[in-house]
Backbone:
């Protein structure tokens, strides 16, 4: 059994990690930490987990083979020294995902720049071999995961793309904030950021595409859809072939069908699972490619991908504890 | 033109007052106050009101014929001295709705007990004549309005009733709070209070029925439904007759129909209007009456009723500035 | 491996059965039937199941150890002869749940009355021993499951109860209907049936309590909450003790806590799981008990309970393929 | 008083017309037609309108000064002969909005081509003078209204634009359809059409911009947001100036603000009103303009704009019966 600790377990990503790890056949949870809720049972914060015999602690002296850092952006780099060397670390913040240059440009100052190059970018479909040997893994962002996996087959062929994102409220975290209360946040199509979104940095690094994000909050608790537009002379058939590389990927489903009900990726179809669904259309008249990429932001966009990385880094079957079919309708 | 001021205009009831008063043909808004947002334009808080040339102030030296107090419960009694005598006051808090005895039992200590008897309980369908002459009006609560209007015809015949309420998030006000953020508050059927709810006090006072409230928060931004159960030997026909008293009420719709699509009151059918829809069913086998009462909590359950009270108190047509048909579907 | 067939697999309960059975470690799905979609891949109807290599068939000549009938009410009794004797049958319709007397009173004529007594009522927490030996199992309704499990400890002590139900749209099935389209069905608190609801029959049979259902459709896709009211002299402590009988039940969670965030059962906390959460409150002033019972209508209220019954009837660990923690937030 | 008839009054646009006309101070409704509901009271279909003394008829021999055709696309051209010459006609279908060439390309065959040129395109902000004299008015589509008003200032300067639309369920009409039922349609981000959307035709005609629509259904009952992307060298200041032309428009609000809470157009802020909110951002790094345009699809995108056209065509104040502030929060 792998001993796992979750640091910062009171947020949504942290709660989802506890949920997935508690069901994982090869994992034993040895600690879940929270400053604010130290001493409380886990279900006081995550009511779905009632029945799990776990309490939050603020003591970092735990015994772990793998430590998941699920703390806010900017926190990981401040606390990581406490854990270095004691266990494999999977960081779910944005602190170690991109090069120092990109970090400075999109985020600002970094207090631990010497560590950045030690981290492997934990997107298994692209960096599986490096993850196998990694001690430090930077888990990708949810928006970035959706966009990178869709654009990666076009690396080298496409230089820029418009990315129109539709995201859910759980991506904003478990924080009080007037703009997030139910009367304000329900039934919106709210432009969270018109352009220059931080998650572009990961896309640039991994695909060389200058992705231009515009992020819209919609009335979802979970899930996201990225709609990606770029110019290219191709055909629907050739597009299809470009995605063949993913045919053996356990968590990518290429959505392609003819006749009857035509479906394209929709976050509704992946909720509760580690799948990312990718689809495409070719607008011949305007020589435009349109890609669609949907995932559950807390699973493939967060905790699920972290568990996938753990499986790989510990030599387990990559799908262990992650083979959940999406819950539908929901 | 009636000069109107809204004290505490940054909450949802306050915003709805501003909206209704701005459209009222006989009203001129002379001040909207907010400590937190003083100096800001109204649309910074209420984005629907973009285009209205109003700013929040924290100066109480305004010129007004009527002052609406839309401050939190417990605040009105602290600040009311500033306004007494200068204008008619319509208080939307719970501070002056019930007798001192009931107040102490359901709320606690009162700092202005001598004023309680000076207030008229502003439920026009019951107290219209007193409202005409009132200087001080206590505007009823949203839950109480729905339940009192449904139960009033049974006053004297019924001694207790079970009241199962389904309420919306706007009733909780515009306050940051982790339990209220969208991921936590969406898709709930959350028991807000299993029993001994404060709004029972108004029902007891107005109907002599010991109403026993259980309040459930559901996934609505606006509206509420009260389902009311009590034992009684009667018939559907006799029940119908008991509601004849409301036939001339401009804002009560009795929902009764046979054949085809059978509808009972639903908050969805009254949103955006000052209507309360009341329906009923008789369970002959168990000799039970079931009443259903639906309204928009911010209008008939708040700002709309306050404007209705203003119209009456100033001798205007009671429906002036309130004849909006509900927006549907929504 | 148990060979399982799902007859009527295109509805929501059918789809959920396929989902759960496909993930079950001891089950092999040998057939999924649908007249309307025969020949189509499963994901044409259930888009979450993309990737499963299954097609609908309308051929009943399949090889199965257990047959799940997930057809509409009234259909099971018409087609059951085709399957009798060939396999264990778990019927998810209402056709064989209650005695002929109750059936006639609540539903009408029965075309297979001689079979009713052959069926075991498949509520494991009450009939586990009979289910172990059963060939024919009638899977309980979703509303009935919630209410029976809450009321069962009071069997003999309580004669009638008011049951106010809040239910979701998936309970209405996958059928086109103007009243069910999104613009009409969103944001409702719609009284589906004021009284005399069919699901009362199961409650009467199992608990001897004359439960009086009033069913409200709320804006949920999954989940239900039953709020149950009855008069009784007791105490909160004694109420708690009455639920001790459930302490070893793997799928019942008794919700009881003091201090901090007070939570009562909410469907939001059980979605995606086979749990039923039961809570209670005692209103001493009015000598009233209030029970709260929440579950996922497609799992513990349908497909999950059917798999639980299968596990028991085939001598497997009762929780096999069902130990999913609820997905939250959702 | 203007005598008004609504042909096809049982749909959502028809219901909204009845609601607005019933509140209009200069209108008397003389007929509302529906084949399916002839003889029924209006509230059997539109439950918000309970209390209005109107019944559906299937008799076209009514007395009217203005006739609103709110029938499905393709129907208007089949029935229009019945009404020609008897009254001003405002057609809310797509039948007479675009030139024959565009119609053939985007829709197909037209059975009344000789009438197309007789119609004025009823977008008051662009065609006010022609509408004043018009007998036949083609009311714009909801998506087209949002996009044209945003793009019109760029006419001549921009040749193509990517248009990512987020639309609500009421735009799909009041029709039964499995894909539209609440369990299927809730919580989606469903690509309704990847490209080549019919509403592009109106945009091309009015702005000469080759708008490339991708339409996403989101979990809204009302409202839509268009996000529009195109390349252009400009500045935020110059963009602002381009919208000055709209400063005197009563129903356009330009959303531009600095500091504090930054808001951009959101359908949530216009529901229940005839406003269209337009905002913009300039991405200097990529020399891209991003426009945002939000409206209530049943009001400014349908019935409200039709009433605005009626007001203009009958010489009334353009805002009469339309000065409703948006309902918020909702």
Residues:
């Amino acid at each position: 059994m792998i001993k796992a600790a979750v640091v910062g377990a009171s947020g949504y990503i942290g709660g989802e990690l506890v949920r997935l790890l508690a069901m994982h056949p090869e994992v034993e949870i040895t600690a879940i930490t929270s400053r604010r809720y130290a001493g409380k049972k886990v279900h006081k914060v995550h009511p779905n987990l009632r029945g799990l015999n776990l309490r939050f602690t603020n003591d970092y002296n735990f015994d772990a083979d793998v430590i998941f850092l699920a703390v806010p952006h900017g926190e990981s780099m401040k606390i990581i020294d406490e854990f270095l060397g004691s266990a494999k670390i999977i960081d779910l913040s944005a602190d170690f995902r991109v090069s120092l240059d990109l970090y400075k440009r999109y985020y600002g100052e970094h207090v631990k720049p010497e560590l950045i190059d030690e981290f492997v970018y934990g997107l298994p479909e692209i960096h599986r071999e490096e993850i196998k040997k990694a001690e430090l893994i930077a888990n990708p962002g949810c928006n970035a995961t959706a966009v990178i996996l869709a654009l990666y087959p076009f690396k080298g062929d496409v230089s820029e793309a418009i990315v129109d994102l539709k995201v859910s409220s759980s991506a904003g975290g478990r924080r009080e904030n007037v703009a997030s209360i139910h009367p304000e946040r329900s039934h919106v199509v709210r432009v969270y950021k018109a352009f220059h979104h931080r998650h572009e940095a990961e896309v640039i690094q991994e695909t060389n595409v200058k992705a231009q994000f515009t992020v819209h909050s919609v009335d979802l608790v979970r899930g996201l859809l990225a709609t990606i537009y770029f110019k290219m002379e191709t055909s629907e058939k050739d597009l299809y072939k470009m995605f063949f590389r993913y045919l053996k990927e356990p968590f990518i489903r290429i959505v392609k069908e003819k006749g009857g009900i035509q479906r394209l990726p929709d976050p509704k179809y992946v909720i509760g699972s580690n799948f990312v669904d990718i689809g495409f259309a070719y607008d011949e008249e305007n020589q435009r490619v349109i890609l669609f990429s949907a995932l559950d932001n807390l699973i493939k966009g967060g905790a699920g991908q972290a568990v996938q990385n753990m499986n790989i880094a510990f030599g387990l079957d990559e799908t262990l504890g992650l083979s959940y079919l999406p819950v539908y309708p929901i």
